[in-house]
# Entry
Amino acid sequence: MLTAIIDYESGNLHSVHKAFERMALETDAGRVVVTNDPDIVLSADRIVLPGDGAFPACRSALCASAVYDAMIEAVEVKARPFLGICVGMQMMAKDGHEYVKTTGLGWIDGTVRRIAPRDTSLKIPHMGWNDLVFRVDHPVLADIKTGDHAYFVHSYQIVISQTDHMLAHAEYSGPITAIVGRDTMVGTQFHPEKSAATGLRLISNFLAWNP
# Structure
């Protein structure tokens, strides 16, 4: 079993890699590699797409990377389980509106917009620990419950158009999209690699997921 973490020079690869390596070792889930090699991505059993920074820059870097076409084939044609993290999740949407309108991957029916809490005194970026509120059962969420905490750092979120694509949200004077999913794809706005027991459980579940 091989899990490929996509390296397109736009993600917190070290901490993501360490967290996935740890859980793969604990659960006997095979190898985890950070890679920009298209052949490795095409041969992988699972794909992880991290992302830090602004949506347009990440999207541009991903499209220009050597692994972009291989990732699309692995996810869309081969239906390999996919996990997007932070901006890696946001790029799953139809488009983003950070600085300029930018086309996304179109895997989740929604658009990325700046967080606008009803309480205007709340700070943006939304940063820190928040309770998760689950809406839909999913194998990647096994043994994680409403009230469990995850760590967020972001100013934008996916505004979901098709409600069954939102698996969980957090409250920040209004709902903040926390986890999305469709078919063999899931995404987390929070950083599972920084989310202690909740994040490690989600990683473990993803490594065991066989849709």
